[in-house]
């Protein structure tokens, strides 16, 4: 009986060590998953900051476009006034050419800003997609962590029960 008990105790001790090793591995995995979640959370914060920056940039660009369009309209009105007045002097002719050039420059600036806004909109959509993927990954990692924690708790409970039976 003693030999049998000794063998059983040795088997239980060996099994206990295996379970402890598995528990340590599980805890290491949990810590690593926690770290990954923290990194994902930081990435999500950066994406939110980027979205805010893109939104502000879009607002600023829109404001500049409106200002340039207003300036453009003002120049168009001035050009029309000069045409209406039929001023034939050299000075008015130079002013007209100058205003036409300025108008063309403003038109090019408006086109560039509109192109920038389109690029920023696309970038914003890409960031939103990435953010959604990160949130899904985070949720999956939380499920995995909860599963690992439940397994660890069950293993600890089983070890305690076996220990109590000894």
UniProtKB/TrEMBL annotation:
Top-level taxon in the UniProt lineage: Eukaryota
Gene Ontology CC annotations of this record: centrosome; cytoplasm
Keyword match Acyltransferase: no
Record keywords: Coiled coil
A GO MF term: microtubule binding
Biological processes annotated in GO: cytoplasmic microtubule organization; cytoskeleton-dependent intracellular transport
Keyword Coiled coil: yes
Residue ranges of coiled coil: 58-165
Listed name of the protein: DAPLE protein
Organism per entry: Oceanodroma tethys
Gene behind the chain: Ccdc88c
């Amino acid at each position: 009986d003693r030999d049998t008990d000794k063998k059983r105790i040795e088997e239980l001790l060996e099994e206990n060590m295996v379970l402890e090793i598995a528990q340590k591995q599980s805890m290491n995995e949990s810590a690593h998953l926690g770290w990954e979640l923290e990194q994902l959370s930081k990435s999500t914060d950066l994406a939110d900051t980027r979205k805010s920056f893109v939104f502000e940039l879009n607002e600023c660009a829109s404001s500049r476009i409106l200002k340039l369009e207003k300036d453009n309209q003002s120049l168009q009105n001035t050009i029309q006034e000069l045409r209406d007045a039929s001023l034939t002097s050299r000075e008015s002719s130079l002013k007209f050419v100058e205003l036409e050039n300025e108008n063309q420059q403003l038109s090019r600036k408006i086109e560039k800003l509109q192109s920038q806004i389109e690029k920023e909109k696309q970038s914003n959509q890409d960031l939103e997609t990435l953010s959604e993927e990160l949130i899904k990954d985070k949720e999956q990692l939380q499920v995995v962590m909860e599963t690992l924690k439940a397994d660890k708790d069950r293993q600890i409970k089983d070890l305690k029960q076996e220990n109590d039976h000894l």
